[in-house]
Design a protein that fits this description.
Layout lengths: L8 H27 L4 H8 L2 E6 L2 E6 H27 L5 H25 L17 H9 L7 H25 L6 H19 L5 H18 L5 H8 L9 H16 L7 H4 L1 H17 L2 H25 L6 H6 L3 H27 L11 H10 L4 H11 L3 H29 L5
Antiparallel strand pairs: 1-2
Helix pairs in contact: 1-5, 1-13, 3-6, 3-9, 3-13, 4-6, 4-15, 5-6, 7-8, 8-9, 10-12, 13-17, 15-16, 15-18, 16-18, 17-18
Length: 435
């Protein structure tokens, strides 16, 4: 029987992101329909359901939607952090020549939409929404790109993935630096100490699940109490997780060769492993060396991708996308907020990504990926206007007025749909025909 070759990490990543976009769409539609149905009260009650505990005479609780947005989304940002770290150390951002094109494209695709939004909203409460049109939803963008199958050059897939990951990094920095009202230093110091301890535990392969969980929870809680958005804890945790092997291959093979030759000569059986301590120690040395050869970051990324793609993000969409569309909402639309977001995502992303890519190529700092033309870069720049998940997330941090939040979410939906359709049509024309 012919064995099907296993997919590499990039292909598994791409498949997970593309297939999850369907689930994300269903969750979004469910939220909008539910919030405007006769059962809208149930939706609101579920969103604001208090979950917490009592300790030392005090009550600690958050509503269900906050647990999703501050708790579960920290796992999403943890995976994002692992992706960023992997790309910087061993991936498409690991060298200046590789990184310069997607980094500058992402910078342009974030800065220009923010400036366009700011031109619509130069002051007042609406001005704080400049971060909303900066983001790109990697799941939807790659999901649409995946519809073209083998027509898409691998260089274009890598360019869009690297661009979206840099975009995520900038979104994380924006949240940490600009959407944090006040920082409480003592909890942040405690988080830093616990993060250092966790780094030592991970790097020394100390197998204490309870201890590891308590350290992780402590870091998250410290960031949460510091006033910085709790999801940043996910990125901080990812920074201490190795994404490369912690043992040199030469040393690994020496350990393997040494213990293998001894074990083969010592007549190992299932019974002898129980009674012979020396055999057990030799097998354990091989096991520990093998663990050090498999980066824990890659292992976690593989296993957490399905969880964040098919559970966490759909739950976030379910609680974040439930916009109540009534006469007041329709009457207020479009406002300067919605116009700024739509213009930023639809026009700003194209100008920023395409313009900065052109600047980098024409200056000689980099070159277009193999098999990729400018028409395809244009199509990808439109796909970059699909803000959705991250844009929804930032909109809830940027605005405090419910009407502004609703207006922003409607604008995000409209811009993302138009960007997706526009990008699909352009790529359908610019990609090579199906063989």
């Amino acid at each position: 029987m012919k064995r099907t070759p296993s997919k590499n990490l990039f292909e598994r990543f791409l498949h997970s992101q593309s297939s999850s976009s369907i689930v994300l769409i269903l969750a979004t539609l469910t939220a909008v329909i539910w919030a405007n149905s006769p059962w809208a009260d149930l939706y609101q009650k579920l969103s604001h359901l208090d979950i917490g505990t009592y300790f030392n005479g005090k009550q600690y609780h958050l509503s269900l939607d906050y647990w999703v947005k501050d708790g579960l989304m920290a796992i999403f940002f943890f995976v994002v952090g692992l992706e960023i770290k992997r790309e910087i150390l061993i991936g498409e951002l690991s060298s200046l020549k590789k990184a310069i094109l997607p980094v500058m494209a992402a910078f342009g695709g974030a800065a220009v939409p923010a400036l366009i939004y700011f031109s619509f909203n130069p002051g007042g409460a609406a001005a704080s929404g400049w971060g909303v049109p900066m983001a790109t939803d990697i799941a939807f963008a790659l999901g649409l790109l995946a519809l073209f199958g083998k027509r898409v050059p691998i260089g274009l897939k890598v360019f869009l993935t690297a661009l979206a990951i840099v975009d995520d990094l900038m979104a994380v920095l924006v949240i940490a630096l600009f959407y944090t009202d006040q920082i409480n230093i003592p909890p942040l110091i405690v988080s830093a100490v616990l993060l250092t301890l966790l780094s030592l535990v991970v790097r020394n392969h100390i197998r204490r699940p309870v201890c590891t969980f308590l350290l992780i929870f402590g870091v998250w809680l410290g960031v949460f109490l510091s006033g910085i958005h709790a999801t940043i804890a996910g990125v901080l945790l990812a920074m201490v997780i190795p994404v490369k092997a912690t043992i040199e291959p030469k040393k690994f093979f020496n350990i393997l060769k040494q213990h293998k030759s001894w074990l083969m000569g010592s007549k190992v059986t299932r019974q002898s492993v129980v009674t012979d301590r020396q055999q057990r120690q030799a097998i354990e040395q091989i096991y520990m060396a093998s663990r050090k050869m498999i980066p824990i970051g890659i292992h976690l990324e593989e296993h957490l991708h399905p969880i964040q793609a098919f559970l966490i993000l759909p739950l976030f969409a379910l609680f974040a996308a439930g916009v109540i569309i009534d006469n007041n909402t329709i009457a207020a639309f479009p406002s300067s907020v919605s116009l700024g977001i739509i213009a930023g995502l639809l026009v700003g992303k194209q100008i920023g990504i395409l313009g900065f890519s052109l600047l980098v190529i024409k200056s000689g700092w980099s070159e277009l990926p193999t098999g990729v033309n400018w028409g395809q870069i244009w199509g990808v720049s439109l796909l970059g206007g699909i803000g959705f998940t991250m844009s929804l997330f930032i909109s809830e941090l940027a605005f405090f007025d419910d009407a502004m939040i609703a207006d922003a979410k409607i604008a995000i939906f409209i811009a993302s749909i138009l960007a997706g359709i526009g990008g699909f049509l352009i790529l359908n024309r610019m990609l090579p025909p199906k063989k």
